[in-house]
Amino acid sequence: MDDAARTEPVPAVGPDSAPAGSSTEDTAPTEPVPPAADERARALLIPVADPNQRVTTTPDVAPVLPGRPAAARPRAQGPGTEPDEEGGTPCPWCGTGNRPGRHFCRRCAMTLAGGPGGPAARRLPWWRRMLDFRNRPAPWAGDRPRLRRSLGRIVTLAVWGLVAALVVTGTFYADNAYQAARDHFAKRAPVAPDSVKASRSFRGHNPELAFDKTNNTWWGPGVSQGGDGEWIEARFQRPTRLLDILITPGISTRAADLSKSALPHRVEALITTADGRTTTRNLTLDQGAGSQRRPFRVGEVSAVRFILRSAHGAAADKQVSIAEIEFFGRSSGS
Questions:
Q1: Is the pLDDT of residue 232 over 90?
Q2: How far apart are CA 77 and CA 72, in angstroms?
């Protein structure tokens, strides 16, 4: 027999466990069970773990930190539905109706000019693009604007530089520009000096003969060769604006008389204005017969002195001669 059969527990016999119909006197005395056998039988019936043995088991769920309450993520909600406006144009982006005359959608705020994949916006002229700084389309989010390094960029900068130069020049020389415009379109009228004088004059050929409005009389300094430094001067009692000057070299306007005297070549005009300032103009005359016109355009002139610097055909037996000097200013009918 095995140990389980041999160690089958025997029910305890006591005064309370006696079967019915039997008495304690008839029961045979029992022997006490040894403690070791009792513990062994109990271990067979109820398995008891060794208290000194450490149980190493892996938990089914890994340990985690205490949970923290997380806020609920906000949900994007679209705009509320609004009734379409009567007679409105549908937005090419979201389809919402907008009343006529609007430029941007009342729902998505996108432009109503064109939608995705629609026709491109009309390109403005170059002068509108230069002057329009604010009404320019902004790039889309995430798009980098292209760098403008083309010829158009250079032309734009050049035009703006020219405009800035014109503004600065016009600020400082506005009056001169206005007077120059008037002088250009004004009619010319002869202006006669009030008095004349000269450094020296040949006998019978006084300086007044150079301003007498006739071409067969002349003035000469009476000095041979080029007459460098000799001068003739015209004065005005009332300051006058002179536009042009007309000089007739020689003793007359005839070509046959050109060789009879030296002809002025370089003449220095010393101009005195009403405020006492002096300026210099250099006049270069041709070697030919007849009058020669030169632009003058000086305002508020009180005196003009013509100083001889060189001459054509200068010789020891010739002197420089000037047949006529005429001044022209603005006509009163201009």
A1: yes
A2: 15
Query: Tokens representing 193?
Result: 């000096």
Q: Is 27 exposed, middle or buried (0-12, 13-18, 19+ CB in 10 A)?
A: middle
318, 243 Cβ separation under 8 angstroms? no
* Mean pLDDT rounded to a whole number for the chain: 77
Q: What is the rounded CA–CA span in Å between residue 201 and residue 281?
A: 23
What is the structure's pLDDT at 123?
66
Instruction: Report how far residue 84's alpha carbon sits from residue 107's, in angstroms, rounded to the nearest whole number.
Output: 11
Rg of the chain (C-alpha set): 62
CA distances from 246 to 191, 216, 224 (A): 11, 15, 24
Instruction: Determine the Cα–Cα distance for residues 3 and 41; give it in Å rounded to an integer.
Output: 10
What digits encode the pLDDT tens for the residues 172-217? Answer: 877 777 777 888 888 888 999 999 999 999 988 999 999 988 888 9
Residue 328 tokens read as 């022209």
CA 116 to chain centre: 31
90 Cβ neighbours under 8 A, 6+ residues apart: 84, 96, 97, 98
Q: What is the pTM of this model?
A: 0.51
HEC string of the chain equals CCHHHHCCCCCCCCCCCCCCCCCCCCCCCCCCCCHHHHHHHHHHHCCCCCCCCCCCCCCCCCCCCCCCCCCCCCCCCCCCCCCCCCCCEECCCCCCEECCCCCECCCCCCECCCCCCCCCCCCCCHHHHHHCCCCCCCCCCCCCCCCCCCHHHHHHHHHHHHHHHHHHHHHHCHHHHHHHHHHHHCCEEEECCCEEEECCCECCECHHHHHCCCCCCCECCCCECCCCCCEEEEEEEEEEEEEEEEEEECCCCCHHHHHHCEEEEEEEEEEEECCCCEEEEEEECCCCCCCEEEEEEEEEEEEEEEEEEEEECCCCCCEECEEEEEEEEECCCC
Give the Cα separation of 279 and 257 in Å (integer).
34
